[in-house]
């Protein structure tokens, strides 16, 4: 796809270009939003806010990087702000300072489908879920996560280790149905 | 990249995760990103409507005022004309009257001065005539005594008396000034009545005496005329000053329209990008990671419309007061509105909590914080240049303003939300104002144009500790002042 043409069209406020860009990235980005939230409704709220930011800040896109990665970054930031603003996420988003964390080098095979794995990740407490997504999926370092969430690097490591251990235990026990229920929309 | 296989597998799987969003998402996105352009025509419509109303108001009042002044001047002109007609048969000469009548046609101001001068001149002429009459009596006495002397010696001075009478009549009219020659001629013609010696005595004494009197009278007339002219000139000045004083003592009405920009400053000369600066959480006592930063506050459109009363204190000093409506605005970025109750705390003082019925979540939508104030300004204007062509006025003063309404948002750093609460503002504000304006004369009225700044030295927020915020305005002042005629 010719992203430069698409971006230029969007900057000229061409509705067809805007719609094309949205249609191209919306599915993938909804997957990103879905991983950070607890319901499809919340994921769509984040997606909506995120795309509004994308279109309003498209002039800041330099074109040097990949457009998908730039949009993804905006979606992740929007999702984190959304979690902070929503009361039902705030209790789970509290991070307890603890430098002691379980160390596990387990690398189990993942026999689950993409959606099954995503459902397991979403079953994690919000704090764990966020840090696991940021580190394991987005590839942020713990220092970066500390800056994004306003926590210590150690706290991020600790929370991640707990999240990882919990997730692996669920995968190993293959206790998927008991923990997740039906995959899709709640 | 991750070294652990587990993370790699998770990442790989999550890259494949996709869902089809509902149609409502795109509709909302489309509505949001394309709505800005639809707003602009409405803004410009209201802007030009406001300008037209203001212009219409100024025209109506100016026109009304001019008509009244014309009517008043018409009446005054008639009065002056009547007065001049009445004076026609009195002591003012035809030339003077003609001059005054001609001047009457010039302008109203000149008429007032003429009227005043006319009355003064009339008085002076009367005084002059009294003086002349006095001199005339003295002259008669002197002439009569000479005549008596001549009668005693030759008893034939009847003609001489006639001559003296004639001379006196001429003097009284002030038209003939060399009548001493006539006297001499007449006297010399009476050689057959008086003896040569006596005739010579009479002639000499009469001529000398008459010459002296006439010269004295001449001097008196010239001196008096000079005095009259000088007095008249001074009187004109006095009259002008009186008119100015009358004018300056009255209040002039003015209208203002000041478009510009407004923002919120942390303190004077120190810009505050963030209008909702946070109290830094004390380390170890609060839960880390839950304090959020609010959106940056951007400057917004501001405008002032008002009516003023202006008084001249001296030639270069003026006082102005009135009432203004002042609109301030700033903008922040927010997300969608959540129609749900919440307990919120203030960004500048976490001990202040309140209940709100709805709030905005963070986002990228532009939200305009509007502040509507009523202002009472007290201003002093000083002309800083000497030229009268385009006076440059420096204006400075204070104003008391009251916040009548506002939709401005406050930020809760704990919940990371924005909410409205007008009670958190100091609704009564004191402001410092200054401007520099050029005074342009338009249709006998004054149009003052120039840059203006205004700074609210009262804190915008109540009970703000260590986070002072002040309203700041900068714009162009257009002030139209109607001059009374």
Task: Assign an overall shape of chain B.
Answer: elongated
Poorly predicted residue ranges of chain A: 182-186
Radius of gyration of chain A: 18 Å
Number of helices of chain B: 8
CATH architecture of the largest domain in chain A: Orthogonal Bundle
CATH topology of the largest domain in chain B: Porin
How many distinct beta strands of chain A?
0
Classify the helix fraction of chain A into a percent range: 55-70%
Stretches of chain B where pLDDT is under 50 for at least 5 consecutive residues are 153-199, 268-290
**Residue fraction in strands of chain B:** 25-35%
Structural class of chain B, by secondary structure, is alpha+beta
The CATH architecture of the largest domain in chain B can be given as Beta Barrel
* Sheet having the most strands of chain A: none
Mean pLDDT score of chain A, rounded? 83
Structural class of chain A: mainly alpha
Which CATH C-level class of the largest domain in chain A is it?
Mainly Alpha
Q: Which series of helices and strands of chain A comes N to C?
A: HHHHHHHHHH
- Tally of domains of chain B: 2
Notable features of this structure?
heterodimer, A: 186 residues, mainly alpha, Rna Polymerase Sigma Factor, Chain: A, Arc Repressor Mutant, subunit A, disordered C terminus, B: 485 residues, Porin, 8-stranded antiparallel barrel, two-stranded antiparallel ribbon, 8 helices, 15 strands
Layout of SSEs?
The complex is a heterodimer of chains A (186) and B (485).
Chain A: H1 3-11, H2 15-36, H3 40-56, H4 67-85, H5 87-90, H6 114-123, H7 126-137, H8 142-149, H9 153-173, H10 176-180
Chain B: H1 5-15, H2 23-33, H3 36-87, H4 94-104, H5 108-154, H6 158-173, H7 179-188, H8 196-249, E1 251-267, E2 270-271, E3 298-312, E4 317-334, E5 337-338, E6 342-345, E7 353-356, E8 359-360, E9 365-383, E10 392-406, E11 409-412, E12 417-420, E13 428-442, E14 445-456, E15 470-481
Antiparallel strand pairs in B: 1-2, 1-3, 1-15, 3-4, 4-9, 5-8, 6-7, 9-10, 10-13, 11-12, 13-14, 14-15
């Amino acid at each position: 796809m010719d992203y430069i043409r698409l971006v230029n069209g969007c900057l000229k406020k061409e509705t067809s270009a805007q719609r094309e860009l949205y249609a191209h990235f919306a599915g993938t980005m909804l997957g990103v939003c879905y991983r950070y939230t607890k319901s499809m409704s919340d994921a769509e709220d984040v997606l909506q806010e995120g795309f509004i930011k994308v279109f309003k800040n498209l002039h800041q896109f330099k074109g040097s990087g990949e457009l998908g990665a730039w949009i993804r970054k905006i979606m992740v930031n929007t999702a984190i702000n959304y979690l902070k603003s929503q009361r039902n996420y705030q209790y789970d988003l509290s991070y307890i300072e603890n430098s002691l964390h379980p160390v596990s080098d387990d690398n189990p095979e993942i026999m689950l489908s993409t959606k099954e794995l995503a459902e397991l990740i979403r079953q994690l407490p919000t704090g764990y879920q966020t840090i696991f997504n940021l580190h394991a999926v987005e590839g942020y370092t713990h220092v970066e996560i500390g800056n994004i969430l306003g926590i210590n690097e150690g706290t991020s490591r600790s929370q991640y280790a707990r999240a990882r251990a919990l997730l692996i235990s669920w995968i190993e026990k293959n206790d998927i149905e008991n923990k997740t229920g039906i995959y899709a929309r709640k | 990249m991750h070294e652990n296989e587990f993370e790699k597998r998770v990442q790989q799987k999550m890259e494949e995760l996709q869902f089809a969003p509902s149609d409502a998402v795109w509709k909302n996105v489309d509505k949001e990103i394309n709505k800005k352009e639809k707003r602009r025509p409405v803004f410009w419509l209201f802007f030009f409507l406001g300008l037209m109303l203001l212009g219409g108001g100024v025209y109506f009042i100016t026109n009304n005022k001019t008509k009244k002044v014309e009517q008043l001047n018409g009446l005054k002109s008639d009065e002056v004309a009547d007065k001049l007609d009445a004076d026609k048969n009195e002591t003012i000469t035809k030339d003077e009257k003609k001059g005054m009548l001609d001047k009457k046609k010039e302008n109203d101001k000149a008429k007032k001065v003429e009227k005043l001068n006319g009355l003064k001149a009339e008085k002076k002429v009367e005084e002059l005539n009294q003086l002349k009459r006095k001199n005339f009596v003295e002259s008669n006495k002197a002439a009569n005594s000479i005549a008596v002397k001549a009668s005693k010696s030759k008893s034939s001075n009847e003609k001489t008396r006639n001559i003296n009478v004639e001379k006196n009549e001429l003097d009284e009219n002030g038209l003939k000034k060399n009548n001493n020659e006539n006297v001499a001629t007449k006297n010399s013609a009476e050689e057959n009545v008086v003896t040569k010696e006596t005739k010579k005595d009479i002639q000499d004494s009469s001529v000398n005496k008459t010459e002296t009197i006439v010269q004295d009278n001449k001097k008196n007339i010239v001196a008096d005329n000079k005095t009259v002219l000088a007095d008249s000139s001074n009187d004109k000045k006095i009259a002008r000053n009186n008119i100015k004083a009358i004018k300056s003592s009255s209040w002039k009405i003015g209208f203002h329209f000041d478009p510009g920009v407004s923002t919120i400053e942390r303190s004077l000369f120190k810009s505050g990008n963030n209008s909702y600066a946070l109290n830094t959480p004390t380390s170890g006592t609060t839960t880390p990671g839950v304090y959020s930063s609010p959106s940056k506050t951007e400057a917004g459109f501001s405008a002032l419309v008002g009516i003023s009363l202006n008084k001249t204190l001296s030639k270069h000093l003026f006082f102005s007061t009135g009432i203004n409506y002042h609109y301030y605005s700033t903008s922040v970025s927010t997300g969608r509105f959540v129609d749900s109750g919440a307990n919120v705390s203030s960004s500048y003082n976490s001990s202040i909590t309140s209940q709100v019925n709805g709030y905005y979540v963070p986002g990228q939508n532009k939200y305009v914080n509007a502040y509507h104030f009523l202002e009472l300004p007290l201003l002093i204007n000083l002309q800083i240049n000497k030229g009268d062509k385009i006076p440059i006025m420096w204006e400075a003063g204070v104003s008391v303003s009251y916040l009548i309404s506002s939709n401005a948002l406050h930020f809760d750093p704990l919940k990371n939300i924005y909410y409205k609460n007008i009670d958190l503002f100091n609704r009564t504000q004191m402001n410092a104002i200054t401007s520099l304006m050029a005074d342009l004369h338009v249709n006998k009225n004054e149009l003052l144009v120039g840059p203006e700044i205004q700074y609210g030295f009262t804190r915008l927020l109540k009970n703000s500790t260590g986070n002072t915020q002040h309203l700041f305005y900068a714009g162009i002042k257009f002030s139209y002042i109607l001059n009374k005629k």
